[in-house]
Records
---
Amino acid sequence: MKTILIAALALCAASPAMAGSNPYWEEMTGADFARAIKEAQGVCVLPMGSVEKFGPSGPMGTNLFMARAVAGEAAKKEFFVIFPAYYVAQTTDVANHLGTINYSPKLQYDMLAETVSEMGRNGCTRIVLSNGHSSNMGLIQWFIQSTLHEPHPYSVYATYPAPPRMSPPTPENAKLPAAMQPSKPDADGHGGEERVALMMAIRPDLVHPERAHDDPVVPEGSIHLPLPAGVLAAPTRFIEAPTSYLGDASGASAGRGKALLGYAADRLVTVIRAIKADQTIPEAEKAFAQQRAHPK
């Protein structure tokens, strides 16, 4: 089964989250949690971030803060349970930078498998990996496919609702609202304006756009591997982002960050509503398990 990356499913009618509902797993009492799982229809979200160098302006937990913030905003509109902060990420390719938290590839997989299993054991029947760190996507695809190895009483979905980077510019991005647009071309990138702006909207005390030029400004995509497109090689990130900083965060603003956060949260709301209505994946998983046990 291919990775379930749901971003364009039809929006399903659903009730907004109940006023006062707390979606955060770690903040609930046992009784609160039992009620929350029922209210969420068994849907639990694992916001996946990372801890790594994020240019001279952003905190190393930028992806972690962003993934949690997007989930928190989305849960206000469509209730679900949010798993505690999860920073076991695929950061091997940026482990050369001071401050990066990097675990062995085996532990990265095992932690994800154990975490999802624990979510299922606690009543989560539809588990959504809401990713905020692009390098996690290979790990997630491998993991989701591996869930077919044996039956589970839950289904796992994955999505990447992060706000779009506008560098380099594309016709699709140009159609997005003005409030989401960068202050100048090539401003976005890893550690650049887009996510620093988002951090200014949620944790302004942690960002330093005035330091944006402390590291060399390198436009996204300006350095390429000396190989044909589509060829994979391990040190790609090391070559293309030597300081782990792409773009220019100096023009970041809380206004843009708020617009980007709202856009990403709305994307996640669409995904959650579609997953709550979905019957195809659970039924297909059961059918697959039967055929795997008795191949035709």
---
Amino acid sequence: MSEYSRFGIYYLPPKGPIAEFGAQWLGWDIDLARICDRPEVAGIEDITMAPRRYGFHGTLMPPFGLAESARREALEAAVDEIAVRHSPIRLLGLELSVVGRFLALTPLGDARALHDLAHDLVADLDQLRATPAPAELARRRAVGLTIAQEANLLRWGYPYVMDEFRFHMTLTDRLTGMQRPLAEAAIRERLPELPRPFDMTEIALVGERTDGMFRTLHRYALTG
């Protein structure tokens, strides 16, 4: 039995100011799999509770359980094969944005290559993915899905993939009232200079531990 209940494919920033900021803001270093000291910001625990367990990242293929017939070694080989097909991706930069009701870093510029990478990961790894349980499907539907998102949920196990995919690096939970301007001010005060351009040179396989926290398992260079 695997020590990880689910796996995902993320973009994780390389070691440096952005990665350090994200780990400290969320309170979890996904590379080192350890708790971080957090900045003294009122209510930070409440506004980062959900994203904390995933670590600071951008999702490329959302977390999934392995099919009964699949093995982690097959997943690792498949991710490696996809990585060597795709070249490093260059975008204009990153910016702090409001995505729905939460705050995240989002890319600037033409993101077609990024979308192509996410598409191939979801499509090519689908054979290794377990079908979501009915309770998981019900939880996804509870937020209200569009027709396209419902179709994705049934076909790919997650609503926000393929044409519904939007790359973002989450920094908060859903915010209400004065939470948003206060959180945005706190983030901007601490956020290091964002890269211009923004280069994505690798992807990462991550695993969900038995305590629900995610950790980095392996990074794969994009070498296509």
